[in-house]
Amino acid sequence: MNVPTFAAVGSIAAVTVAVVTGLLVAGSPAEQRLLRLDDRRVSDLRQLSSAAQFQWEQNQTLPASPAALVDGRYLSRLPVDPAGQSYEYRATGPRAFEVCVVFDRPSRPELVGDFWFHEAGRKCFPFDVTESRR
Question: What is the pLDDT of residue 17?
Fold first, then answer.
């Protein structure tokens, strides 16, 4: 094997190892897409919970249904899950509500302990309007 051939084979091997290592560390593009969709879900749930909190602060009542969250001031339309499903909002008491969604993947490990931490699958996040905002 001459020097140029050896260098070419070595370069190809190094690039292959770098790409495989990158995919193992960061995950495949499809996996990254699912994580981004879950991040969007959390963002949408934050928006819904903030809209419910806002209506409580304005009216001292919680919206009775998801459609009632749309007030034209704080929320002009209901966000839609990236998979096309509706997010769940439910008043669970006079001062309590929950928002629910189905996640594709568990939260990243660095988020353990965060209020929005979740496993894969359906997860509901409870709120009490008498507690501080999250």
Answer: 54
Question: How many of the other CB atoms lie within 10 Å of CB of 39?
Answer: 13
Q: Give the SS3 label for residue 113.
A: coil
User: For residue range 12-36, what is the model confidence (pLDDT) as tens digits?
Assistant: 665 565 555 554 555 688 899 999 9
Fold (topology level) of 28-128: Glycoprotein, Type 4 Pilin (3.30.700)
Question: 6-37: string of b/e by CB count within 10 Å (b at 16+)?
Answer: eeeeeeeeeeeeeeeeeeeeeeeeeeeebbee
Residue with tokens 């002009």: 76
Best CA proximity match to 46, nearest among 115, 128, 122, 119: 115
Reported pTM: 0.77
Enumerate the domain spans of the chain: 28-128
CA distance 40 to 18: 30
